[in-house]
């Protein structure tokens, strides 16, 4: 019996060490990304405060302040491109693929609230009709928000199609 307890304690310690090293790696990722973005803001002579965080096992950076709307674009396309460039900069620096999330002027935060509301409305529609509903094409960030919200509600969803026309289908119970 003591052998089992010892193995469980060893496994717990190992898991804590892995979690700490993951957080340390994500913090390093955030620091590299922040340096890259700071340099980019300096080159373009833009003002903005960069906040670094770790959310959902990924580095998360937010830039706020100044006149940054043009760094988002009409539908977030410029933000998506900046996020991808920042991920590439981190990968080049650290040698590992990055999944960091970038937000500018709370565009993604606002979008997340809007999409969660949409997911709740669609879930009610699916529950009432018993039929699946196919949403408009969305980017990966938008689809993930919908999938996560639908899962929290207790329904299932799946993505269908190819980018840029990939969309979410919400399925009845």
What features would you highlight for this structure?
globular; Ribosomal Protein S8, Chain: A, domain 1; GMP Synthetase, Chain A, domain 3; 4 helices; three-stranded antiparallel β-sheet; three-stranded mixed β-sheet; 173 residues; alpha+beta; 2 domains
Main β sheet profile: 3 strands, mixed
The percentage helix is 55-70%
**CATH superfamily heading of the largest domain:** K homology (KH) domain
**CATH fold group of the largest domain:** GMP Synthetase, Chain A, domain 3
Radius of gyration: 20 Å
Structural class: alpha+beta
Number of strands: 6
Order of helices and strands: HEEHEHEHEE
The proportion of residues in beta strands is: 15-25%
Secondary structure elements and pairings:
Elements: H1 2-43, E1 49-55, E2 58-64, H2 77-94, E3 101-104, H3 107-129, E4 133-137, H4 140-153, E5 156-160, E6 167-171
Parallel strand pairs: 2-3
Antiparallel strand pairs: 1-2, 4-6, 5-6
How would you characterize this protein structure?
There is one protein chain. This protein has 2 domains: 2-105, K homology (KH) domain (GMP Synthetase, Chain A, domain 3); 110-171, R3H-like domain (Ribosomal Protein S8, Chain: A, domain 1), CATH 3.30.1370.50. β2 (58-64), α2 (77-94) and β3 form a beta-alpha-beta unit. The protein has helices at residues 2-43, 77-94, 107-129, 140-153; strands at 49-55, 58-64, 101-104, 133-137, 156-160, 167-171. The strands form 2 sheets. Strands 1-2-3 form a 3-stranded mixed β-sheet, with helices on both faces. Strands 4-6-5 form a 3-stranded antiparallel β-sheet, with helices on one face. α3 (107-129) crosses α4. By secondary structure, it is an alpha+beta fold.
């Amino acid at each position: 019996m003591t052998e089992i307890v010892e193995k469980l304690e060893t496994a717990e310690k190992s898991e804590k060490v892995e979690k700490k090293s993951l957080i340390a790696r994500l913090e390093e990722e955030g620091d590299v990304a922040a340096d890259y973005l700071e340099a980019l803001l300096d080159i373009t002579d833009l003002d903005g405060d960069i906040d670094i965080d770790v959310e959902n096992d990924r580095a998360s950076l937010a830039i706020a302040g100044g006149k940054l709307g043009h760094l988002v674009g009409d539908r977030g396309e410029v933000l998506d491109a900046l996020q991808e460039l920042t991920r590439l900069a981190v990968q080049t620096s650290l040698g590992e693929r990055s999944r960091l999330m970038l937000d500018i002027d709370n565009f993604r935060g606002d979008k997340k609230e809007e999409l969660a509301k949409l997911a709740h409305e669609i879930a009610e529609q699916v529950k009432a009709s018993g039929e699946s509903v196919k949403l408009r094409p969305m980017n990966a960030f938008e689809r993930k928000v919908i999938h996560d919200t639908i899962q929290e509600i207790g329904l299932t969803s799946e993505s269908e199609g190819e980018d840029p026309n990939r969309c979410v289908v919400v399925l009845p119970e």
